[in-house]
Amino acid sequence: MIMKSTVKSIFLALLTIFSLNVSFANSSEENTQHPKEKEEFNVGEMIMHHIKDAHEWHLFGPEHGGTSIYLPIILIDGGLKTFSSSNFYHGEHKSAIDHKTGKEVSYVAGKGAASAYGMFHEKIYKLENGELNFEGGHVHGSIKPWDLSITKNVVSLFFGAIFILVIMGSVAKFYKKNGAVAPKGLAKYLEVIVVMVRDDVAKANIGEAKYKKYVPYLLTIFFFVWFNNMLGMIPFLPGGANLTGNLTVTLFLAVCTLIVTLASANKNYWKHIFATPGVPVALLPIMIPIEIVGIFTKPFALMIRLFANMTAGHIIVLALISIIFINQNAAWGFLSVPMALFISVLELLVAFLQAFLFAMLSALFIGAAVEEAHH
């Protein structure tokens, strides 16, 4: 599996170089015709373009004019309005002056069915007199409709969920048909991991008496995080968006753990929150708010840890590849590409480790909530 992932990482690095090289070729041609409009390679903009959510699935080539899969836009603005995101990505590129900073800001005005809207940093706003106004780097005075669009992360979420259902369904079908026999095929590889989550995560942290009913949840959250972490390393394939590097997704996963924890909490857990044993009554007004805050800081840490670790890996790889284009010399590829591949191999470990930590800490929080009082 490591060899296959390494080959995919090499392919990703080469594809990134090719994509950015096409961008440079286009910009160089434009700069030859218009020398005054020459722009330097913007590393931050390139990285954010690759890791953030979008209304298109960019495959390769330059950011504008490359090969992309355009996703459906679904807006609620005085009714339901749907159209293709190509109406934005092939729309009119406009500029406006920021009233606060005096700097020029670029945005896209939609065409066709999207002619009443503009897109700025992948957010859709209603145009005012055919324009967007800016103040302090933000859109000012424009209505923002409800955006229920199928974005790149949503597609990746659906693909990841279906992928897990197919994989786990085939493994469950094998055991249903053959019973408790020596595993074959996919079951041979996944049984070890399932047993690990059951014994080393659930049983070890929740306790032998109560762990069984939480194993399905912990297995689901482990495989969901792990599979999507791995898919996120191949961004040009379906399901390969930076899904676990999206705060909305990690927030939802953390909230799920919080709900399971609070729903499972027994009398002993709440006693430690509102009447901590051994603490003087005079200190309870101080301790109770601290304990209540602690309930929410635990899932918050889960959310930030997964988001930060997965996003950081993508940023480092893209930053290393960018060295070639910052120096505008292909010879730097002999340094940056091996370093990027090394980080990509480390990401394989991080992808598994973050899934394991998310499941283990979830089990730890649940175990604390169901633990009985010690006498």
Distance between the termini: 49 Å
Order of helices and strands: HHEEEEHEEEEEEEHHHHHHH
Instruction: Give me the secondary-structure category.
Output: alpha+beta
**Total of domains:** 2
Helix content: 55-70%
Q: Strand order across the biggest sheet?
A: 5-6-7-8
- Cα radius of gyration in angstroms: 25 Å
What is the number of strand segments?
Answer: 11
Q: Which residue ranges are poorly predicted, with pLDDT under 50 across at least 5 consecutive positions?
A: 1-38
Q: Which sheet architecture does the biggest sheet show? A: 4 strands, antiparallel
Strand content: 5-15%
The overall average pLDDT, rounded, is 84
Shape: globular
Number of helices: 10
Q: Which assembly state applies to the chains in this document?
A: single chain
Helix-strand blueprint:
Layout lengths: L1 H32 L9 H9 L4 E5 L6 E4 L1 E5 L3 E5 L1 H4 L2 E6 L6 E6 L7 E4 L2 E4 L7 E2 L2 E2 L6 E2 L4 H27 L7 H21 L8 H17 L15 H18 L2 H8 L9 H44 L5 H38 L5
Antiparallel strand pairs: 1-2, 3-4, 3-11, 5-6, 6-7, 7-8, 9-10
Characterise the protein shown here.
By secondary structure, the protein is α+β, with helices and mostly antiparallel strands. It has 2 domains: 72-149, no CATH class; 152-370, no CATH class. The protein has helices at 2-33, 43-51, 86-89, 152-178, 186-206, 215-231, 247-264, 267-274, 284-327, 333-370, and strands spanning 56-60, 67-70, 72-76, 80-84, 92-97, 104-109, 117-120, 123-126, 134-135, 138-139, 146-147. A 4-stranded antiparallel sheet has the order 5-6-7-8, with no helix packed on it. A 3-stranded antiparallel sheet has the order 4-3-11. A two-stranded antiparallel sheet has the order 1-2. A hairpin with a 6-residue loop joins strand 5 and strand 6. The radius of gyration is 25 Å and the shape is globular. It starts with a helix and ends in a 5-residue tail after the last helix.
